[in-house]
Design goal:
The complex is a heterodimer of chains A (115) and B (234).
Chain A (H helix, E strand, L loop, with lengths): L11 H29 L3 H10 L1 H29 L3 H28 L1
Helix pairs in contact in A: 1-3, 3-4
Chain B lengths: L2 E8 L9 E8 L7 H11 L18 E4 L2 E4 L12 E4 L6 E3 L2 E2 L2 H9 L19 H5 L18 H5 L6 H12 L7 H8 L13 H5 L6 H16 L1
Parallel strand pairs in B: 1-5
Antiparallel strand pairs in B: 1-2, 3-4, 3-5, 6-7
The chains are: A mainly alpha (115), B alpha+beta (234).
Chain lengths: 115, 234
Amino acid sequence: MVKRILVGAHYGFRDWLAQRITAVVMALYTVLFAVAAASVAGSGFEGWRALFASGFMRFATFVFFVALAWHAWIGVRDIFMDYIKPTGLRLALHVLVILVLVGYLGWAALILGRL
Amino acid sequence: MPTMQFKIYRYDPDRDERPRMQDISVEIDAADRKLLDVLVKLKAKDDSIGYRRSCREGVCGSDAMNINGKNGLACLTEVKDLKQPVVLRPLPGLPVIRDLIVDMTQFFKQYHSIRPYLINDEPPPERERLQSPEDREELDGLYECILCACCSTSCPSFWWNPDKYVGPAGLLQAYRFLCDTRDQATSERLDDLDDPYRLFRCHSIMNCVDACPKELNPMAAIGKIKAMMLARTV
C-alpha cells in the first residue's frame, strides 16, 4: 500500500455525540440507582431482590449496561488511535474489545433475566 | 545592574549527539521590559544561540517558545513575572532545526488543509462582499490569530497525531471560515472535519486556551464547529 496519510472516516461526529448521550444516560442511572439503593437500605437480600424484580429497574439497568459498553468502546478505541499505530494490531485489539464488551452485555442480560 | 539567570535548550542536529541545557546569565537594566529584550542581549553575549524573531510586538508570532514550561511569545512576556533561572525550550512536539528554532512544516500543512480562504463562486461585486455588522462580529476572536503555534504545540492530541489532527490553531481558522457569511463551502468544510482524527482528537483539556498569547479561545471555536455539525445532523 502506498504510504499516504489517510483521514476521512466519517464517524467522528456520530461517535462524539454517542459518547455524550451515553454519558448522560449513565449519570441519570447513577442518580436513580442511588435513590433506589437508599430506599432498600437495611432490608437485606429480599429488599434488593424486590427492587430488581420490577421490570422498570431491570430495563433501566440493561440500558445502563448498553450505554456503558458503547461509551467504553468509543473511549478505548480513542486510546488505541493514539498509541497503537500498526493497523493489523489495532484491528485485532478492536475486535477483542468488541467481543469482550458484547460478552459482558450478554452476561449482564443473563443475570438480569434470572432475577 | 541586576543579573538574570537562564537555562537554554541547545541542540544542533548536525553537530550534537543529543540536546543539552546551557546555563547562562546576562545583565539587565530597566529598559529590558520583555523577554525578547533580554534575549537580544543574550545573543550579543553568545551569538551561537538560535531563535526566531521579527516584529518584536506580538504580531508576527515568530518568537514563540516554551518559557518556564509554558508556551508563549518572548516579545509579550514580562521579564518581571519570570521565575529564575528562566528555562527556555523550543515549542514541544515539532522537530528542532537548531536550539529554539523548530520546523513548523507540519503545523502549516494542517493550517492549509482547512482551506483558509473564502470560497464563493458568485461573481465578486464591483467593490467588496458586504457583511452586516452582526455577521462581521462573529469573526472577532478568530481573525486575530497570528499562527504562532503556541496552542497546537501545547496540545497532547497534536503531539500524538500531528499528521492527522488539525490542531487548535487550524480548527480556530476552520471556524473563522465556517462562520463567515460570505463563504459558500460550509457543508464541504464540515464534511472534511467530520473525522475521528481531524476534529475529534480534541478532548477539551484547554491547554490551547491557556497557552494562547493573544488570549483567543480555540476550544470554544472547536465547540462551535461541533454545534454546527449537531445542527446539521438533527
